[in-house]
Amino acid sequence: MGKPVTGLGEADLDDLCARWPGATRSIKWEVDLVWSVANKMFVVYCTLGPDRGRLSFKVDSDRFLELSAQPGMAPAHYMARAFWISVTEPERYTRDELAGFVRRSYELVRANLPKKTQAALGDGE
């Protein structure tokens, strides 16, 4: 068995999120790749500059303090009050761990959409 693959790149994020119902991709603030569901962000990936590779996403409120205290993670700038975490050192985490966090973020954001909007999205993986 080889060493687990760490980090989550732009192409990995695209492959992951493109499969989910209602998920859309955009570039915001000129440098951030953003995936949203019904125009509500669930993950932000910095594509340029000193924060390149930084990944931010929503987490369960009861896990926010635990996760923000982990090495390589911190409360997300401007979004911490909404229980968002930034992975400042993505190389510390396996691709599968990060993909799980992104999937959970999608689920949390989708669950907060109006029921009619959720129903219109249909079922996904």
From TrEMBL:
Does the keyword DNA-binding belong to this entry? yes
The protein's GO terms of the molecular function aspect are: DNA binding
InterPro entries (UniProt xref): YjbR, YjbR-like_sf, YjbR/MT2646/Rv2570-like
Please verify whether the record's keywords include DNA-binding.
yes
Keyword list (alphabetical) reads: DNA-binding
- Record-linked PANTHER family: CYTOPLASMIC PROTEIN, CYTOPLASMIC PROTEIN-RELATED
**Record protein name field:** Putative DNA-binding protein (MmcQ/YjbR family)
